[in-house]
Amino acid sequence: MTGLFRQSTFGHLGGYEDVNDADRLGRDPAMRWIVGGHAVAKQAASASQMGRFETEFLASDDNIAVLADLSGAWINQVHERHPPKDMILDLDSSVSPTHGEQEGTAYNGHFGCTCYHPLFLFNHLGALERCSLRPGNVHSAEGWRDVLEPVVKRYKKRKIRLYFRGDAAFASPDLYEYLEAESILYAIRIKANKVLQEHIAHLLRRPVGRPPKRVQRFHASFSYRAGSWDKKRRVVAKVEWHPGELYPRVGFIVTNLSRPAERVVIFYNQRGTAEQWIKEGKNAIKWTRLSCRKFRNNAVRLQLHALAYNLANFMRTLALPKEVEHWSLTTIREKLVKIGAKVVAHGRYVTFQMAEVAVPRDLFRKILRLIDQLRRPVLARA
After folding, report:
1. Which one, out of 43, 109, 127, 285, has a CA that is 20 to 30 A from the CA of 314?
2. Is the separation of the CB atoms in 144 and 170 below 8 Å?
Protein backbone atom coordinates (compact mmCIF):
# COMPACT_ATOMS: atom_id res chain seq x y z
CA MET A 1 0.00 0.00 0.00
CA THR A 2 2.89 2.35 0.70
CA GLY A 3 4.13 1.98 -2.86
CA LEU A 4 0.67 2.65 -4.30
CA PHE A 5 0.35 5.75 -2.14
CA ARG A 6 3.75 7.02 -3.25
CA GLN A 7 2.95 6.41 -6.90
CA SER A 8 -0.36 8.23 -6.60
CA THR A 9 1.02 11.26 -4.74
CA PHE A 10 4.15 11.71 -6.85
CA GLY A 11 2.14 11.15 -10.02
CA HIS A 12 -0.08 14.08 -9.08
CA LEU A 13 3.03 16.09 -8.20
CA GLY A 14 4.41 15.48 -11.68
CA GLY A 15 1.22 16.77 -13.31
CA TYR A 16 -0.21 13.33 -14.18
CA GLU A 17 -3.68 13.91 -12.80
CA ASP A 18 -5.39 10.76 -14.13
CA VAL A 19 -4.84 7.09 -13.26
CA ASN A 20 -4.76 6.49 -17.04
CA ASP A 21 -1.16 7.70 -16.90
CA ALA A 22 -0.17 4.93 -14.48
CA ASP A 23 0.67 2.40 -17.23
CA ARG A 24 3.32 4.73 -18.66
CA LEU A 25 4.52 5.95 -15.25
CA GLY A 26 4.81 2.37 -14.04
CA ARG A 27 7.66 1.83 -16.51
CA ASP A 28 9.41 5.10 -15.69
CA PRO A 29 12.75 4.40 -13.90
CA ALA A 30 12.43 7.38 -11.53
CA MET A 31 8.89 6.42 -10.52
CA ARG A 32 9.94 2.81 -9.97
CA TRP A 33 12.67 3.96 -7.55
CA ILE A 34 10.18 6.23 -5.77
CA VAL A 35 7.75 3.33 -5.32
CA GLY A 36 10.55 1.02 -4.20
CA GLY A 37 10.36 -2.68 -3.47
CA HIS A 38 9.78 -5.01 -6.40
CA ALA A 39 8.92 -2.04 -8.64
CA VAL A 40 12.63 -1.13 -8.88
CA ALA A 41 13.44 -4.27 -10.85
CA LYS A 42 10.06 -4.82 -12.51
CA GLN A 43 7.24 -2.29 -12.87
CA ALA A 44 5.10 -0.07 -10.67
CA ALA A 45 1.32 -0.36 -10.43
CA SER A 46 -0.82 -0.35 -13.56
CA ALA A 47 -3.77 1.93 -14.28
CA SER A 48 -6.29 -0.69 -13.12
CA GLN A 49 -4.40 -1.24 -9.86
CA MET A 50 -4.19 2.50 -9.18
CA GLY A 51 -7.88 2.88 -10.02
CA ARG A 52 -8.88 0.23 -7.49
CA PHE A 53 -6.55 1.75 -4.89
CA GLU A 54 -8.07 5.23 -5.19
CA THR A 55 -11.75 4.35 -5.73
CA GLU A 56 -12.08 1.29 -3.48
CA PHE A 57 -9.42 1.24 -0.77
CA LEU A 58 -9.00 4.97 -0.13
CA ALA A 59 -12.69 5.79 -0.60
CA SER A 60 -13.79 4.40 2.78
CA ASP A 61 -14.93 6.90 5.43
CA ASP A 62 -11.98 6.12 7.69
CA ASN A 63 -9.38 6.52 4.94
CA ILE A 64 -10.88 9.78 3.68
CA ALA A 65 -10.66 11.13 7.25
CA VAL A 66 -7.01 10.03 7.49
CA LEU A 67 -6.20 11.68 4.16
CA ALA A 68 -7.81 14.93 5.34
CA ASP A 69 -5.61 14.89 8.48
CA LEU A 70 -2.41 13.91 6.68
CA SER A 71 -1.55 17.37 5.37
CA GLY A 72 -1.65 18.70 8.93
CA ALA A 73 0.63 15.88 10.11
CA TRP A 74 3.16 16.75 7.41
CA ILE A 75 3.00 20.44 8.31
CA ASN A 76 3.61 19.56 11.97
CA GLN A 77 6.80 17.73 11.00
CA VAL A 78 8.01 20.79 9.10
CA HIS A 79 7.26 23.03 12.09
CA GLU A 80 9.24 20.76 14.39
CA ARG A 81 12.34 21.64 12.38
CA HIS A 82 11.33 25.26 11.72
CA PRO A 83 9.00 26.33 14.57
CA PRO A 84 6.86 29.38 13.74
CA LYS A 85 6.00 32.02 16.34
CA ASP A 86 2.56 32.69 14.89
CA MET A 87 0.38 31.44 12.06
CA ILE A 88 -2.06 33.25 9.75
CA LEU A 89 -4.92 31.15 8.36
CA ASP A 90 -6.72 32.13 5.13
CA LEU A 91 -10.04 30.46 4.32
CA ASP A 92 -11.38 30.62 0.77
CA SER A 93 -13.57 28.65 -1.62
CA SER A 94 -13.00 27.82 -5.26
CA VAL A 95 -14.58 26.12 -8.25
CA SER A 96 -13.95 22.74 -9.89
CA PRO A 97 -15.99 22.45 -13.11
CA THR A 98 -17.82 19.15 -13.61
CA HIS A 99 -19.15 17.32 -16.64
CA GLY A 100 -21.95 14.84 -17.09
CA GLU A 101 -23.90 13.18 -14.28
CA GLN A 102 -21.35 13.37 -11.48
CA GLU A 103 -22.67 13.05 -7.93
CA GLY A 104 -22.90 16.38 -6.12
CA THR A 105 -22.58 18.49 -9.24
CA ALA A 106 -24.84 21.52 -9.42
CA TYR A 107 -25.06 24.85 -11.19
CA ASN A 108 -23.42 27.71 -9.30
CA GLY A 109 -24.70 31.14 -10.27
CA HIS A 110 -21.60 32.95 -8.98
CA PHE A 111 -19.19 30.91 -11.10
CA GLY A 112 -21.66 30.46 -13.96
CA CYS A 113 -21.11 26.72 -14.46
CA THR A 114 -21.94 23.28 -13.11
CA CYS A 115 -19.24 22.46 -10.62
CA TYR A 116 -18.03 21.33 -7.23
CA HIS A 117 -17.38 24.08 -4.67
CA PRO A 118 -14.34 23.01 -2.57
CA LEU A 119 -13.18 24.87 0.53
CA PHE A 120 -9.47 25.49 1.22
CA LEU A 121 -7.58 26.62 4.32
CA PHE A 122 -4.02 27.87 3.77
CA ASN A 123 -1.43 29.23 6.15
CA HIS A 124 0.67 32.29 5.34
CA LEU A 125 3.62 30.09 4.30
CA GLY A 126 1.60 28.68 1.41
CA ALA A 127 0.89 25.24 2.91
CA LEU A 128 -2.60 23.83 2.46
CA GLU A 129 -3.71 23.03 6.01
CA ARG A 130 -6.98 21.34 5.11
CA CYS A 131 -9.54 21.15 2.32
CA SER A 132 -13.03 19.75 1.77
CA LEU A 133 -15.00 18.86 -1.34
CA ARG A 134 -18.56 20.19 -1.37
CA PRO A 135 -21.51 20.13 -3.80
CA GLY A 136 -21.59 22.93 -6.33
CA ASN A 137 -24.62 24.80 -4.98
CA VAL A 138 -23.60 25.30 -1.34
CA HIS A 139 -22.77 28.69 0.18
CA SER A 140 -19.10 29.67 0.21
CA ALA A 141 -18.92 29.36 4.01
CA GLU A 142 -20.78 26.04 4.24
CA GLY A 143 -18.88 23.56 6.42
CA TRP A 144 -16.28 26.03 7.67
CA ARG A 145 -16.20 24.33 11.07
CA ASP A 146 -15.20 20.97 9.57
CA VAL A 147 -12.20 22.62 7.93
CA LEU A 148 -11.15 25.24 10.49
CA GLU A 149 -11.70 23.58 13.87
CA PRO A 150 -9.30 20.60 13.45
CA VAL A 151 -6.53 22.97 12.38
CA VAL A 152 -7.13 25.32 15.32
CA LYS A 153 -7.07 22.37 17.76
CA ARG A 154 -3.77 21.21 16.27
CA TYR A 155 -2.12 24.60 16.70
CA LYS A 156 -3.55 25.14 20.19
CA LYS A 157 -1.61 22.08 21.33
CA ARG A 158 1.58 23.70 20.03
CA LYS A 159 0.76 27.06 21.68
CA ILE A 160 1.14 29.09 18.48
CA ARG A 161 -0.57 32.48 18.17
CA LEU A 162 -3.23 32.32 15.45
CA TYR A 163 -4.63 34.92 13.07
CA PHE A 164 -7.52 34.49 10.62
CA ARG A 165 -8.53 36.25 7.40
CA GLY A 166 -11.59 35.76 5.22
CA ASP A 167 -13.62 37.58 2.60
CA ALA A 168 -17.23 38.76 2.92
CA ALA A 169 -18.57 35.23 2.34
CA PHE A 170 -17.34 34.32 5.84
CA ALA A 171 -18.88 37.34 7.58
CA SER A 172 -20.94 35.28 10.01
CA PRO A 173 -21.65 35.90 13.71
CA ASP A 174 -21.03 32.20 14.42
CA LEU A 175 -17.53 32.51 13.00
CA TYR A 176 -16.79 35.73 14.93
CA GLU A 177 -17.90 34.14 18.20
CA TYR A 178 -15.85 30.99 17.56
CA LEU A 179 -12.69 32.97 16.77
CA GLU A 180 -13.11 35.17 19.83
CA ALA A 181 -13.72 32.14 22.07
CA GLU A 182 -10.47 30.61 20.79
CA SER A 183 -8.56 33.92 21.26
CA ILE A 184 -7.82 34.15 17.53
CA LEU A 185 -7.21 37.59 16.03
CA TYR A 186 -9.14 38.09 12.81
CA ALA A 187 -9.90 40.45 9.93
CA ILE A 188 -12.97 39.63 7.83
CA ARG A 189 -14.48 41.77 5.12
CA ILE A 190 -18.16 42.68 5.49
CA LYS A 191 -20.61 44.02 2.93
CA ALA A 192 -21.46 47.71 2.94
CA ASN A 193 -24.83 48.94 4.16
CA LYS A 194 -26.50 52.25 4.91
CA VAL A 195 -25.55 52.28 8.60
CA LEU A 196 -21.87 51.60 7.88
CA GLN A 197 -21.78 54.32 5.24
CA GLU A 198 -23.30 56.83 7.65
CA HIS A 199 -20.32 56.31 9.98
CA ILE A 200 -17.94 57.47 7.23
CA ALA A 201 -20.20 59.99 5.49
CA HIS A 202 -17.51 62.66 5.83
CA LEU A 203 -15.12 60.52 3.77
CA LEU A 204 -17.64 59.87 0.97
CA ARG A 205 -17.67 63.51 -0.12
CA ARG A 206 -15.31 64.27 -2.96
CA PRO A 207 -12.16 66.03 -1.68
CA VAL A 208 -12.08 69.76 -2.28
CA GLY A 209 -9.85 71.08 -5.07
CA ARG A 210 -8.57 69.83 -8.38
CA PRO A 211 -8.63 66.00 -8.57
CA PRO A 212 -5.08 64.65 -8.11
CA LYS A 213 -3.43 62.28 -10.56
CA ARG A 214 -2.81 59.69 -7.87
CA VAL A 215 -5.11 57.57 -5.71
CA GLN A 216 -6.25 59.18 -2.47
CA ARG A 217 -6.84 56.79 0.45
CA PHE A 218 -8.61 57.48 3.72
CA HIS A 219 -9.19 55.17 6.70
CA ALA A 220 -11.59 55.18 9.62
CA SER A 221 -12.30 53.00 12.65
CA PHE A 222 -15.52 52.80 14.68
CA SER A 223 -17.70 50.45 16.76
CA TYR A 224 -20.68 48.81 15.09
CA ARG A 225 -23.27 46.19 15.98
CA ALA A 226 -25.38 44.48 13.34
CA GLY A 227 -28.81 43.15 14.22
CA SER A 228 -27.57 39.53 14.31
CA TRP A 229 -24.48 40.27 16.45
CA ASP A 230 -24.36 39.68 20.19
CA LYS A 231 -22.19 42.74 20.86
CA LYS A 232 -20.44 45.71 19.27
CA ARG A 233 -17.30 45.00 17.26
CA ARG A 234 -14.61 47.12 15.70
CA VAL A 235 -15.04 47.97 12.01
CA VAL A 236 -12.31 49.47 9.84
CA ALA A 237 -13.21 51.35 6.67
CA LYS A 238 -11.09 52.18 3.64
CA VAL A 239 -12.13 54.82 1.10
CA GLU A 240 -10.22 55.22 -2.17
CA TRP A 241 -10.70 58.04 -4.67
CA HIS A 242 -9.27 57.03 -8.05
CA PRO A 243 -8.49 59.55 -10.84
CA GLY A 244 -11.23 59.65 -13.46
CA GLU A 245 -13.82 57.88 -11.27
CA LEU A 246 -16.95 59.67 -10.05
CA TYR A 247 -17.56 57.58 -6.92
CA PRO A 248 -15.13 56.25 -4.32
CA ARG A 249 -14.26 52.61 -3.73
CA VAL A 250 -15.32 51.65 -0.21
CA GLY A 251 -14.52 48.55 1.85
CA PHE A 252 -15.32 47.50 5.43
CA ILE A 253 -13.49 45.01 7.66
CA VAL A 254 -14.68 43.66 11.00
CA THR A 255 -11.75 42.87 13.28
CA ASN A 256 -10.57 42.39 16.85
CA LEU A 257 -7.06 43.63 16.04
CA SER A 258 -5.88 46.65 18.00
CA ARG A 259 -3.43 47.94 15.40
CA PRO A 260 -4.11 51.19 13.47
CA ALA A 261 -6.78 51.12 10.76
CA GLU A 262 -4.29 51.42 7.89
CA ARG A 263 -2.30 48.43 9.15
CA VAL A 264 -5.48 46.37 9.53
CA VAL A 265 -6.24 47.00 5.86
CA ILE A 266 -2.70 46.03 4.85
CA PHE A 267 -2.98 42.84 6.93
CA TYR A 268 -6.30 41.93 5.30
CA ASN A 269 -5.13 42.68 1.75
CA GLN A 270 -2.34 40.14 2.11
CA ARG A 271 -4.94 37.37 2.00
CA GLY A 272 -4.81 37.78 -1.78
CA THR A 273 -1.86 35.39 -1.74
CA ALA A 274 -4.30 32.57 -0.88
CA GLU A 275 -6.07 33.18 -4.18
CA GLN A 276 -2.71 32.91 -5.93
CA TRP A 277 -2.02 29.57 -4.23
CA ILE A 278 -5.40 28.27 -5.39
CA LYS A 279 -4.44 29.24 -8.95
CA GLU A 280 -1.15 27.37 -8.55
CA GLY A 281 -3.05 24.30 -7.37
CA LYS A 282 -5.25 24.50 -10.45
CA ASN A 283 -2.41 25.05 -12.93
CA ALA A 284 0.48 23.04 -11.49
CA ILE A 285 -1.26 20.22 -9.60
CA LYS A 286 -4.48 20.17 -11.68
CA TRP A 287 -6.67 19.69 -8.62
CA THR A 288 -9.77 20.69 -10.58
CA ARG A 289 -9.42 17.37 -12.41
CA LEU A 290 -12.13 15.54 -10.46
CA SER A 291 -13.49 13.23 -13.13
CA CYS A 292 -14.92 10.31 -11.13
CA ARG A 293 -18.65 9.70 -11.11
CA LYS A 294 -18.99 9.13 -7.36
CA PHE A 295 -18.64 12.10 -5.02
CA ARG A 296 -16.52 10.26 -2.44
CA ASN A 297 -14.04 9.16 -5.11
CA ASN A 298 -13.60 12.78 -6.14
CA ALA A 299 -13.15 13.70 -2.47
CA VAL A 300 -10.25 11.21 -2.37
CA ARG A 301 -8.73 12.73 -5.50
CA LEU A 302 -8.91 16.24 -4.02
CA GLN A 303 -7.06 15.08 -0.89
CA LEU A 304 -4.36 13.41 -3.01
CA HIS A 305 -4.01 16.63 -5.01
CA ALA A 306 -3.66 18.53 -1.72
CA LEU A 307 -0.83 16.25 -0.57
CA ALA A 308 0.98 16.69 -3.89
CA TYR A 309 0.55 20.47 -3.60
CA ASN A 310 2.08 20.46 -0.12
CA LEU A 311 5.06 18.39 -1.28
CA ALA A 312 5.74 20.97 -3.98
CA ASN A 313 5.29 23.86 -1.53
CA PHE A 314 7.69 22.22 0.95
CA MET A 315 10.21 22.02 -1.88
CA ARG A 316 9.75 25.74 -2.54
CA THR A 317 9.93 26.92 1.08
CA LEU A 318 12.56 24.50 2.43
CA ALA A 319 14.78 23.34 -0.42
CA LEU A 320 15.19 26.21 -2.88
CA PRO A 321 18.23 28.52 -2.66
CA LYS A 322 17.73 32.28 -2.43
CA GLU A 323 18.27 32.87 -6.14
CA VAL A 324 15.29 30.70 -7.14
CA GLU A 325 13.01 31.00 -4.11
CA HIS A 326 10.56 32.92 -6.33
CA TRP A 327 9.85 29.86 -8.51
CA SER A 328 6.21 28.97 -8.94
CA LEU A 329 4.98 25.41 -8.48
CA THR A 330 4.72 25.07 -12.25
CA THR A 331 8.38 26.01 -12.63
CA ILE A 332 9.38 23.57 -9.89
CA ARG A 333 7.49 20.80 -11.65
CA GLU A 334 8.97 21.51 -15.06
CA LYS A 335 12.56 22.01 -13.87
CA LEU A 336 12.89 19.56 -10.97
CA VAL A 337 10.17 16.91 -11.23
CA LYS A 338 8.86 16.41 -14.75
CA ILE A 339 12.16 16.46 -16.62
CA GLY A 340 14.00 14.06 -18.90
CA ALA A 341 17.19 12.23 -17.95
CA LYS A 342 19.51 9.54 -19.23
CA VAL A 343 19.30 6.44 -17.05
CA VAL A 344 22.49 4.42 -16.55
CA ALA A 345 21.91 1.16 -14.66
CA HIS A 346 24.81 -0.45 -12.81
CA GLY A 347 24.92 -3.61 -10.77
CA ARG A 348 24.13 -1.97 -7.41
CA TYR A 349 22.86 1.49 -8.27
CA VAL A 350 21.25 3.62 -10.98
CA THR A 351 22.53 6.99 -12.20
CA PHE A 352 20.20 9.67 -13.57
CA GLN A 353 22.11 12.03 -15.88
CA MET A 354 20.16 15.26 -16.40
CA ALA A 355 20.78 18.04 -18.88
CA GLU A 356 22.29 21.15 -17.30
CA VAL A 357 20.05 23.34 -19.47
CA ALA A 358 17.10 22.98 -17.06
CA VAL A 359 18.99 23.35 -13.78
CA PRO A 360 22.71 24.26 -13.61
CA ARG A 361 24.98 21.86 -11.76
CA ASP A 362 25.81 24.26 -8.92
CA LEU A 363 22.15 25.14 -8.36
CA PHE A 364 21.13 21.48 -8.32
CA ARG A 365 23.92 20.75 -5.83
CA LYS A 366 22.59 23.49 -3.52
CA ILE A 367 19.07 22.04 -3.74
CA LEU A 368 20.30 18.56 -2.85
CA ARG A 369 22.28 19.98 0.06
CA LEU A 370 19.20 21.73 1.43
CA ILE A 371 17.15 18.55 1.09
CA ASP A 372 19.86 16.57 2.90
CA GLN A 373 19.80 19.07 5.76
CA LEU A 374 16.14 18.23 6.34
CA ARG A 375 17.08 14.75 7.50
CA ARG A 376 17.03 14.19 11.23
CA PRO A 377 20.57 14.23 12.63
CA VAL A 378 21.92 10.82 13.61
CA LEU A 379 22.75 10.80 17.31
CA ALA A 380 26.12 9.27 18.16
CA ARG A 381 26.04 6.39 20.59
CA ALA A 382 27.52 7.08 24.02
Report:
1. 43
2. yes
